[in-house]
Design goal:
Strands 2, 4, 5, 6, 9, 10 and 11 form a 7-stranded mixed β-sheet that branches. Strands 1-3-8-7 form a 4-stranded antiparallel β-sheet, with no helix packed on it. The chain is globular, with a radius of gyration of 13 Å. Helices cover 0% and strands 52% of the residues. With 112 residues, it is mostly beta strands.
Length: 112
């Protein structure tokens, strides 16, 4: 069964950091580009970052560039999203997507 599971969300103060994980089962994640999206309450789901099948092929939305880093651990069949200098506007449910599959999402709340 193809499945993606996100984890690592939580409540953090502005300026803080979180690392989200996207673990795959049922397929080899390294064979696919992986994308992170986020959806804030009442808003559309927005693209955040992409990592290609090569770990040096990454792209970021302008709103997170320089603060977020997407990476892979192929041995763990997992993709990460390191989020630094978090801002209240980063508050959203974060989803990973690969191979036509979506995870269930993990909540990130940035608040003092």
């Amino acid at each position: 069964q193809v499945q993606l599971v996100e984890s690592g969300g939580g409540l953090v103060q502005p300026g803080g950091s979180l690392r989200l994980s996207c673990a795959a089962s049922g397929f080899t994640l390294s064979s696919y580009p992986v994308r992170w999206y986020r959806q804030a309450p009442g808003k559309e789901r927005d693209w955040v970052a992409t990592i290609g099948t090569g770990s040096d092929n990454t792209m970021y939305a302008n709103s997170v560039k320089g603060r977020f880093t997407i990476s892979r651990d192929n041995a763990k069949n997992t993709v990460y999203l390191q989020m630094n200098n978090l801002k209240p506007e980063d508050t959203a449910v974060y989803y990973c997507q690969a191979a036509r599959s979506w995870g269930q999402g993990t909540q990130v709340t940035v608040s003092s």
